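User: I've been going back and forth on whether these two constructs are worth ordering. Before I decide, could you fold them both?

Assistant: Sure. I'll take them in the order you sent them. The first construct and its structure tokens:
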Amino acid sequence: RAPAAAPINPAATLAAAIAHRRAPAFPYTAAGGQGAAATYWVWFRGALAMRLCSGAAAAGANVQDVLREPTALGLIRICAEAFKRPLSEEEMSHLDKAPVSAAWLREVLA
């Protein structure tokens, strides 16, 4: 494993992302829903899973490491510091609207 990146301030990073980006096109819709909003969020969850898995693999880490701090701020931190692949402002603005938790992340990664 490469050395960890310098610590970041996830709360400030998230606040900056929210300030620069509009809210997601649709309100959060859980898996299994119907319609455009459900489809939109299915794609986001799938893309996030791929992003987390590829980031972990590139860093020689285990994707399950994201469960150590299962919050939007935790994901921002681990992607930047442990995976060395910071989330985009767009990804962060979406995480701000998602119900990020250990259970949600397990579902995303399933």
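The second construct, handled the same way:
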Amino acid sequence: MTKYIVVSGGVISGIGKGVIASSTGTLLKTLGLRVTAIKIDPYLNIDAGLMSPLDHGEVFVLNDGGEVDLDLGNYERFLDVELSRINNITT
């Protein structure tokens, strides 16, 4: 059965939500569970690469060319997985 863990911290940036999600995933992976990560951003039909760096910050470019939030880079490194654009959801 599929189970989900949601890490939320509102709109406050830089409090470590991405690192907490990555670390939790790593711990679950060491227990032998299959883990992936999905980032949900509240941007209306736009990806991080089209926004000003002053509004969004740095972007991470995935192997499939998707320009996403830097957190997805952390997810890839911590979980040792290759993510794609489908792991990034905008509203």
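Notes on the second construct follow. Residues 17-90 form one domain. The first helix runs from residue 17 to 30.
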